[in-house]
Amino acid sequence: MPNTVVVLGAGVGGLTAATRLRELLPERDRIILVDRSFDGVQGLSLLWVLRGWRDAEQVRVRPKPLPGIDMRTAEVRSVDTAARVVHTGTGPIPYDAVVVALGAGLAPERVPGLSDALATGVAGQFYGLDGAERLHRQLSRIDSGRIAVLVAGVPFKCPAAPFEGALLAADLLRERGVRDAVTVDAFTPDPLPMPVAGPAVGRALVGMLERHGIGFHGNRAVARVDPAARRLEFADGAGEPFDLLVVVPPHQAPTAVAGTGLGAAGWIPVDRHTLAAGAPGVWALGDSSALLLPNGKPLPKAAVFARREAEVVADGVARHLGHDAPEPHFDGLGSCYVEIGGHVAAKGVGDFFAPGGPEVTLLDPSPGFHEEKQEEERAWLARWNG
């Protein structure tokens, strides 16, 4: 009897999982890939949109038809893990196995005043294509004053992104000839940037910021944004003024993910090595999942992990359905680039499953790492857009 595997979300993880499953499963088994629009964006390129190095059409991901995969445009409303049914805006889809790769959503309303600040242009964010384009325009107009780069909540996608945003904003201001007239400061509730990577990496990133004239302020949990006064108010009672706020809004699990009831915080807890969730026939990967490291901290939400997790999940689904496939084993190895401006990037590489905590090395900035990231961007767009 044929099986049906439903993959939810056509981002990095969903596309990789669906195509890998098609390689592993017999032709009689159905693979249904569900996405709200199949009109996405290359996430690693959004900071380049902010900087002005890319425009919208250069970073869009519009997947071509995938042979042997039923691509359905629909809003995922809920996943009934007991009945094994995905409910969508176009009707129910029964499944034998489901892969949840719906990513993470933004929740600016969780910080009083932040939604108003974004709506009125007092603040900008780069976690979406429209936001990144708008923020580029905002950065292209500011000639003096103070830019505050704020992490408004954790966890969030791409741990280095806020600090890359600060560095690339400073780089754009320098190119415009107004850098000396604009102060740039970064604020985060964490004690150091990228705390999961360890204090040595955090201190190295602080050093990069300081060398580019960017102030770093750790342990600053925002309580409120006052858009009229252009002021940040922190949980410790302190306040900071700004002229333009560049914000990483709080992130939240999509409603359909939170509605599974598999995780108290909405994110779906998964096995560290197989990405299997706590219900039969359910796997979750990427930003939708909550994977705890040996030291009890969560694995960062980053595309580099989602891509590898997707291959592991596909192997696990195939074996679950009784087919030959490699033993699923996610190893926790990963790397990321840290753009600092001037077409130069640093690179962090590490073993996040090391028993004593992640072992991460931050390699010195070079044009070569920026070129590596460009090649990664080109390869991904070519693979899916044709």
UniProtKB/TrEMBL annotation:
<dbReference type="Pfam" id="PF07992">
    <property type="entry name" value="Pyr_redox_2"/>
</dbReference>
<dbReference type="InterPro" id="IPR036188">
    <property type="entry name" value="FAD/NAD-bd_sf"/>
</dbReference>
<protein>
    <submittedName>
        <fullName>NAD(P)/FAD-dependent oxidoreductase</fullName>
    </submittedName>
</protein>
<dbReference type="InterPro" id="IPR052541">
    <property type="entry name" value="SQRD"/>
</dbReference>
<dbReference type="InterPro" id="IPR023753">
    <property type="entry name" value="FAD/NAD-binding_dom"/>
</dbReference>
<feature type="domain" description="FAD/NAD(P)-binding">
    <location>
        <begin position="4"/>
        <end position="309"/>
    </location>
</feature>
<dbReference type="GO" id="GO:0016491">
    <property type="term" value="F:oxidoreductase activity"/>
</dbReference>
